[in-house]
Amino acid sequence: MVIKTTLLLGLTLLLSCEQQTNKSETVLTKTKSEKNLIAETANLDSTISPYQQEVNKALADPTIDNYYKEIYRQEKLIIRDDNKMLSITKNLFTKDNNKDLFYFIVFTKSMNGSDGFYSEAVGLSAFEFVTNYTEQFADYFNVAPKLTDHDMDNWANYIYGEIQISREKQENQAIKELENQLLENVKLSRPEYKVVIERFIKKIQARN
After folding, report:
1. Whether 130 contacts 137, CB under 8 Å
2. Which distant-in-sequence residues (6+ apart) come within 8 Å of 106 by Cβ?
3. CA pair distance 72, 110, nearest whole angstrom
4. pLDDT (tens digit per residue) in 117-161
5. What is this structure's pTM?
6. Cα–Cα dist 115/36, whole Å
7. What is the rounded radius of gyration, in angstroms, for the C-alpha atoms of the chain?
8. Which residues contact 76 (CB under 8 A, 6 or more apart)?
9. H helical segments located in the chain
């Protein structure tokens, strides 16, 4: 009886060890698979620019109103009630670093098809943004996705429009003052920003 009991105990321990080993191998295999999936995802994301990744996250964010996402996709203003449209200009100045580029692009695209009271709001907001957030403006137009030369033309049109309203018959002087101000704002920034601002100023001058 003692021998049989010992044999049974030994077999039980052996089976237990084998089961534990198989379980450990399964967990290890699962962990490796998860790590490989994460690595593959990271490699895929690495092919997308940080700016595009930021925009993609905004597009997938359920807290962002679909109204703005549609403007982003259609690249033009979508007519809604006054408050909804004016919220586009408000969001241009968001302090959320994860959404500021997205809202900048939405604001820029909303210039296409804008008219009436909304155009007035766009002009004021555009002038305020370019003079107070010059580095951000230059950075986006330097490398951000979806922004085109036509978009910069739109910005130039609105900025010149504001100059005409506020500095009638003094446009040349006003443009020169704006140029000095914007270049001063980026003088300690990346060299590319100066190039963007100089190109932008030339577009404004061409409208004078």
Report:
1. yes
2. 68, 71, 72, 88, 91
3. 8
4. 999 999 999 999 999 999 999 999 999 999 999 999 999 999 999
5. 0.78
6. 52
7. 29
8. 109, 110, 112, 113
9. 2-45, 50-60, 66-74, 82-91, 100-110, 116-132, 134-143, 149-166, 171-185, 191-206
Q: Which residue has the tokens 């033009």?
A: 76
Q: What's the pLDDT at 8?
A: 36
In the chain the first and final C-alpha atoms are separated, in Å, by: 109
pLDDT single digits (tens) 165-196:
999 999 999 999 999 999 999 999 999 999 99
In contact, 125 and 92? CB cutoff 8 Å: yes
CA nearest neighbour of 119 among 81, 149, 89, 80: 89
Nearest to 108 by CA among 68, 58, 165: 68
Joined together, the tokens standing for residue 204 give 């404004």
DSSP state of 113: T
Residue 23 in this model has a pLDDT that exceeds 80: no
Rounded Cα gap, residues 166 and 100, in angstroms: 28
Which stretches of 92-133 are DSSP H helices? 100-110, 116-132
Q: Are 71 and 78 in contact (CB under 8 A)?
A: yes
Nearest alpha-carbon partner for 105 in 65, 55, 40: 55
